[in-house]
Amino acid sequence: MPDPLFPTIVAGAAKEALRFGDHALSYDALAAVAGGLARELPPGRVAVWATPTVHTSVAVVAALLAGVPAVPLNPKIGERELAHILADSEPALVLAEPGAELPAGLAALPRRDIPLTGEGAPIPPEADPESPALIVYTSGTTGPPKGVVLPRRALATTLDALEDAWAWTAADVLVHALPLFHVHGLILGILGPLRRGGSVRHLGRFSTEGVARELDAGATMLFGVPTMYHRIAGEVGSDPALADALKRARLLVSGSAALPVHDHQRITAATGQQVVERYGMTETLMNTSVRADGERKPGTVGVPLRGVDLRLVGDAGEVIDDVETVGEIQVRGPNMFTGYLNRPDATAAAFDDGWFRTGDMATRDADGYVQIVGRKATDLIKSGGYKIGAGEIENALLEHPRVAEAAVTGEPDDDLGERIVAWIVPAGPPPSETELADHVARLLAPHKRPRVVRFLDALPRNDMGKVMKRALGA
Hints:
By secondary structure, the chain is an alpha/beta fold. Among the domains are: about 5-190, ANL, N-terminal domain (Rossmann fold, 3-Layer(aba) Sandwich), CATH 3.40.50.12780; about 380-474, GMP Synthetase, Chain A, domain 3. About 30% of the residues lie in helices and about 25% in strands. The strands form six sheets. The protein has a nine-stranded mixed sheet, sandwiched between helices. Strands 16, 17, 19, 20 and 21 form a five-stranded antiparallel sheet that branches. Strands 4-3-5-6 form a four-stranded parallel sheet, sandwiched between helices.
């Protein structure tokens, strides 16, 4: 029989597993309620209305114990996207928090409210490692969202590789406030602690006060996205209580998008802590990370995780072996998805002789650390014969004292091919276009200076804090 995905749930323990505000469940209580729910689930797939609650965690654990693939649904989903996901995945029912108001698009689907108490039932036998665990839908930036089929093997592999990279143990207590319909918040942030036999405290809604409170109360790890760490960086220098709480953390981890170097520096200056960045995708789960016992290099996402093969490939398909040359990241390993649901064509197109094409562009330094320069489609700018990554220009812009947020894109230019456009949320009086161009040219190189500057009140972001650059272009 395969090893259990959650050994501590199967073995039982009195220690706290999950806490969401006033709702807390021990491992014994989680085994009772999720095990009981698992026995009731029908074959096929189940949708989970993934509110940031303990109910969502129970539902997903129950589905995994039952060996039934779960389809997490974003509670803010639009009606067209919901209709597509339901037609594509054909779930047998929807699991939802009691009292949660569901959209009309789910009216035809049987509903089962998620309990928080149960008499307990024998936990079903462990499912095959290659069987589907979760079907997580992509953001759909280039068409309708695709259902990424993640096998149990991928979940176990990626979480165990992070155990190795982060020295993650049952003694760790994780705090975060990430949404539970995506890889970062659900797989890493909920299933990660449960696989280790540790604990997770979810804030429900992010606040620096909540982070400080939980770190003061014994939490050892913090997961966040750059928008959260940007808030922390802006407050920590003037908030001694927040700084002291962060100093107590064993590990601060940022993911889902690049954390600006300026924010790294502000947090380190106030706390002595260096934030660890990692890199993954829905299709691949985690690929690289800065190791807990390794050198911290702000602006990089570290080295490949145990079991992950990673290469950089040029425009002509050549494998890049030298340092500092930009290429597309391609990966392979046991952390991979099995395919896109009902899309064999898209699955085949995503691979190059067994290597998954990530669409992310990066360089590698002499120590093997990967530095992502951006997405191939939106963040690699070809200007005046140069390949320029948007990320380094964004980091340079953020060093200007009157720049609060920055995004960089390219747009067509008759002479240059593409010209660099900076989208700026100013901090105070907006700096002039010339001032910003000279600032970047001084820090980087003249050909990397923005040719156009556009000021905004806020950058458009998705639920994970990523800037939606296609919206900027539109």
